[in-house]
């Protein structure tokens, strides 16, 4: 039985690679529109979730703007600004990036905060999710203008926000990011609402 030469082995490997790449490309092409549609539907649900207490009649997803790498979804009612939803990411989670939405009314008061994506430890850091605990609701009605900067921290750091037993890094990262978003809103409010 003849042994395979390095050239024929390389040829077989190249053919196999070509077939696999072709299959992956085919599956991607067949599913990419559905994936985009599902991601857009999830965005609309999240926007509605954080804006449900605020009147708005525009389509914030269609009016989105980007300032300083933050994606902003402004909300208007009868042409008047009512709120802004700011999508941001902190890299300071225990297990990496935490992506969140922060909704603020026109005065800068927080309407709601929701976690979009994270890789935090199950049973500890994942308590930032609303379906796991009510901790994320502690931001409601808070404002950068109403609290001193030092209060925007977890209690372990002498702030106003609870941390989780055994998981301080995750809530600290979220609190710091929400504070950063509030300061960003104060600085760029006129640009956000084109005033």
What is the domain total for the residues?
1
Shape: globular
Number of distinct beta strands: 5
Tell me the β content. Answer: 15-25%
List the uncertain runs. none
What is the straight-line distance between the termini? Answer: 81 Å
Radius of gyration (CA) equals 23 Å
What is the subunit arrangement here? single chain
Tally of contiguous helical segments: 2
Let me know the average pLDDT. Answer: 85
- Order of neighbouring strands in the sheet with most strands: 1-2-3-4-5
Structural class: alpha+beta
Q: N-to-C SSE series?
A: HEEEEEH
Sketch the major β-sheet. Answer: 5 strands, antiparallel
Describe the structure.
The termini are far apart. The chain is built from two helices and five strands, in the order H-E-E-E-E-E-H. It has helices spanning 6-51, 169-192, and strands spanning 65-67, 70-77, 80-93, 96-105, 110-117. The protein is α+β, with helices and mostly antiparallel strands and 195 residues long. It has a five-stranded antiparallel β-sheet with strand order 1-2-3-4-5. It has one domain (50-192).
Descriptive terms for the model:
2 helices, 22% strand, 195 residues, alpha+beta, 5 strands
List the helices and strands and how they pair.
Layout: H1 6-51, E1 65-67, E2 70-77, E3 80-93, E4 96-105, E5 110-117, H2 169-192
Antiparallel strand pairs: 1-2, 2-3, 3-4, 4-5
